[in-house]
Design goal:
seven-stranded mixed β-sheet, 13 strands, 352 residues, homotetramer
């Protein structure tokens, strides 16, 4: 694509929206042509996110007022709540079938209509798009993504857990019925809705688990782990909320299916990602820290041995707003529009 | 004991030391008669911890200068580093055999001399006291503690993990070879030593695991879980550091040994602690938060079912400086000196 | 008062409400007989603040359903929003004239009806009570408070600024037209309402001023400083929000009215509070830190000299929820009901 | 300069060092040819700052082992402690006189030898270089910097205070004897030295002033404000430490020298920076927040009117590690080496 690509961000007043704008403003091949935010329509982006004050950006508009055909966007990032999303994208693609879409909601992540209904409590309103959508975990589905019109950007927790586990599951080296994922996320993962339990004073200087035994990201893990294994895989998964803004760390407990050692697990993961720009495997025995990927599109993975023979402890860290959301979305865009995969994503982690 | 008990705090310039002073200053039956801090000897407590400025306290002295016999203390809290501790306590008890001791280090927690040498890298210099010492987890060893002269106050991580697990292990309802303890601690658990990796800028806005596969608290867990089970038990245990000051949350993954259900686990734990003033079991399915026990001597425990049949997820939360250290030490003192067990420990959690 | 006093807390689901419950639960002369929270009526206090799970407390009720006469409360703490407050208290005192009231809102702090209307944008609906109310800054109005039926508990910012400045203003030693108060508050001062700008992710790792040039606490400062000076005093006051829960630090810039030196200012303040249990003046040149008063009813004050002759920099620190709100309210209650002033307020600061 | 410039970073194991590496790694015209860190010599940068693990960087070496002539560096960033700095730079420039230097210490900021001796407690060992050095506040000394061999990068507090005040002082519109600067800084401003008072548990959830009346940055403010005024100017300046990593906010209190209004001050500042890429003046009455410049090289400035006539309150916010240190250093480098001034500094603030 020789000219600048015209892109839009739907839901620009949320955190994944602002993170997209942060990245896209510095992407050399992209022009931000549309920003929507229904409740803030008519305002400038600087009223919603003052860090953008120095930059020229389109005024926020309401989705209902957009003429998709006239807008002639090359690609749209959809950062809307689930359920709303499927209606908006269906309308968009009906009006402008050549526009490509990276959807950051959960609406198109599950290929199985029944699974969607079971986990999200209602029929999917655009099952034909559910079928068309490609799951956007780049390191696994790169070839499919390049050809896709609609990509379902993976969840933050699930990206973090899948990257280390998929290679091990594919190789058949770990016991599939004994995987425990203890995940901890910074607060931006919970979004920008004004809820009492997300207030600073409720969150600061404390820690807790939530969604124990029934978090929706489980559906996505089930789907992808089962695909990788060729059989049903159900994992134990517990999310927690950290008193910090950005970062997910998953501590994953696995057991060898036969005689493999933790060192073998490390070698398998390291080999799987040897050429990947955004997955870095630490030396055996070292564990990742979320602060070292903050603001970057990197995932850091570490493998250590448990003191119990045949068991390993795996750490996986990423920034939930970047590789866990908007960074991966831009990575998907780059593939879909034929740009170099790392374009606009070279930022180095901000530490301290 | 009719008169005020005379007590001393060795190592008053650290966090467990200051926390002891906070509690003892308001204990109605105690007089703080001695405070030591070798590197700060000669200074006032207010120079080391300004929150004590309004209160009259003994000047900090060096341990070497204390005449234990003349001091005639009823009880000494020892909040010194391990290894140093055993020498100090041996000398103290030789000079003043009637003085009682609550030791907050790891030096007397392991009954087995070989285990001590293996985990702490050297011979124990006071094995006779190692034999005499009683392990100070009050809810488990209350009767022995009442008669003890030397009590080894448990570690913070281990108190947090033992309280929910001991009743289950004793009842034989969980598979002993598949216990995973994923523990997260606030920074005060790491002490007050000036180390680069404990600086605010290194810790804030980030999260990581440490001591993966080889943390010393494992020795204490092994000992107590094996005692409870009547056979060797080795658990998987991973500690993490939280960007906050106080609080430990342990997320514990267990599997039924036979047909028991998570609801049964909840009932067993609830029954075990029905009369306990400092252990509170939440309704089935609710999980604890560290913020709700901050500054108090409470442990909150929750049990929820995993979506995988026969598996449960247990949460256990306490303040590492109170029930995980100094509060439990005062609770031990109360038993050893014949005071009501809850005296001086009634503070309610400080939230928010 | 020989028997336990029966007290109520109106607005128990907010932070000043929960802080009152924390303190009152351990007050030896008080029985918590009533807790209201309109939007949470019918729920247990533990559903709103889980830290109270282990304790027996009245179920939350709606204010409208309370029969004040039948309730026969000795004293009510009113922790409701302004405007609502004046209506509730007027009704309460009409039905139960013998009940005493400590009001934590701004509704009765201003004695001047016009000032109220100007700053709060509307007529006061209970001007007779506005006249009756005593301003509850204990260290200044102790005698009046002992005889009062209705006490207006001072604001957090204003308590913090008044304690060091009132003695200096009374003595006439500082220039009244050049007082600058740069105040910084933890987030609990903003309350528990679910607002976007109070979310953890909006507040953490950042700092800003707000209400620049027009914060309502100015009205209270004007009134009290003018009373102390015997002439109109208008100060410069800028509040800021800190990424932490508890604590206010005011940095105050003053200039001598004549030849006095900063050391004189220190001596005047120290003398004014020599016998006060809850105001502690640090040695000259030392400055206070909010962390050393956290959770306690103490105010720490420091005075240092500026490098410019005749100018001093004063620091004043308190916990906005304790001495800045609920602790001072209990202090007022103690005076009004004839209890020792420090009863139930002896907690030592929780640091770290 | 057609080829890549070869640059070195002295003191790469500190925070300004790592921040330089973060920026330089993505600078399109620069090759990082040398990294020194005496105490970590022989280690990889990834051992000191794991966020650089994925990148190829020179091994850390000791300064003593560097052959400056052979190294043939185009420019060196010096991020060493003061006093050490002047010796290192003198030796470097003696051996390699064509190498340019941006010094981030305080050693060359004061042009007056006596002022240096007074504030830093000793003779300057390279007074000839002190004379040669250009003060590197780009927006004020751009032309001189372009021609300089040695630039003294300004301090973080002083950059933050100078940017809004210099235009006002130059125009003579504010009273020069009544300027109060109340400054608040994140913890990275205190560096990476392992000190007890910088531990997470000492800093978190608290706030305090330090260096009251005698902070070394005053010398730099005196010099620059006096230069701008053409007469001696001494300001009141109080620094505070915030429980967060990055960001300085200065709240500045000024008074009109005659009949000017706060709106005039705003217009003067806005006009002064109208074309500046890294200084953004908010609309009159809006105040800046540190979070909106985090990680970027921007300074945000706001002006509001005080309720006292003729007085204004000015807010100035920047990231102490970027515009307050390493970003401004790269901006200086760009000028000195003839690159576009904004090259490598286009990162947008990371919020949330």
């Amino acid at each position: 694509m020789a000219r600048q690509a015209k892109v839009g961000v739907l839901g620009a007043s949320g955190y994944t929206g602002s993170e997209l704008v942060r990245l896209l403003l510095r992407h050399p091949q992209v022009e931000i042509a549309l920003l929507t935010a229904d409740r803030r329509a008519g305002q400038a982006m600087r009223d919603v996110f003052p860090q953008f004050s120095p930059f020229a950006l389109p005024t926020l508009v309401s989705i209902d007022g957009v003429d998709w055909k006239a807008a002639a966007l090359d690609l749209v990032f959809c950062a809307l709540p689930h359920a709303t999303t499927q209606k908006v994208i269906a309308a968009l693609l009906a009006a402008a079938p050549a526009t490509k879409v990276v959807d950051l909601s959960a609406d198109f992540r599950l290929a199985d209509t029944n699974a969607y209904a079971r986990w999200y409590g209602g029929e999917h309103s655009a099952p034909h798009l559910q079928t068309e959508a490609v799951y956007g975990l780049v390191e696994v589905y790169r070839d499919e993504i390049k050809k896709a019109r609609l990509v379902a950007n993976p969840g933050c927790y699930t990206t973090c857990a899948q990257l280390p586990l998929i290679p091990l599951i594919r190789k058949g080296v770990i016991a599939l019925d004994d995987i425990v994922i203890d995940a901890k996320s910074g607060m931006t993962g919970a979004g920008r809705a004004a809820k009492e339990n997300m207030l600073f004073s409720e969150v600061s200087e404390g820690f807790h688990a939530y969604g124990v035994g029934h978090h929706r990201h489980m559906a996505e893990l089930d789907q992808e782990f089962s695909r990788a294994a060729g059989r049903d895989v159900v994992v134990t998964f517990t999310p927690h909320l950290l008193p910090m803004n950005r970062g997910i760390l998953s501590t994953i407990y696995v057991r060898a299916s036969a005689q493999q050692k933790p060192e073998d697990f490390h070698a398998i993961i390291a080999q799987a990602y040897a050429g990947e720009p955004f997955v870095h495997v630490l030396p055996f025995g070292e564990m990742p820290q979320t602060r070292h990927v903050r603001g970057s599109n990197m995932t850091f993975i570490g493998v250590a041995k448990d003191r119990k023979p045949g068991r390993a402890i795996i750490g996986s860290a990423l920034d939930n707003l970047v590789k866990g959301a908007s960074g991966q979305a831009v990575q998907n865009m780059n593939l879909m529009l034929g740009f170099p995969e790392t374009m606009g994503l070279e930022q180095i982690a901000l530490f301290p």
